[in-house]
Design a protein that fits this description.
The protein is built from 5 helices and 4 strands; from the N terminus they run H-H-E-H-H-E-E-H-E. The chain has 142 residues and is of the alpha+beta class. A 4-stranded mixed β-sheet has the order 1-3-2-4, with helices on both faces. The longest helix is centred in the first third of the chain and has 17 residues.
Length: 142
Amino acid sequence: MKNTPVGVGEARDIDRQVERVLRELGHPEPPLRLELVRELERLDRHFYSTADASCLGEMIGRLRRAGRQIVSRPTLLLDAVRKAQLSALWILDGRRILIDNEIPNLKKRWAEGHEIGHSLADWHRAYFVGTARKVSHPTFGK
């Protein structure tokens, strides 16, 4: 994936959304408790296993039975995870964050925060968003 700079308008929007969340949480001291942000934003977090494809299949089935349309083709989620080697993704339908249980615990927190950020940006709602494993992060490596 190519890192592209965020535009001035988008950066301003992100700053406003982060300030809103921090204000609504009472400007807590770091580290930010992501479970409180998930609760505030009504986000649901689940873990899946790339080592066990049936786990992701079960998630797709549960979402379908709940009447939520993930995408026009339910297997697209499974295909995206496999082909793009996603370690986390945000699904607008159902407001779910899915995180690969196989990644290190510190990377899980980073991935969760990253996907929460996607959910806060209104202009991201047009995208099916995921975090690829191949993207390196200065703290966590590849």
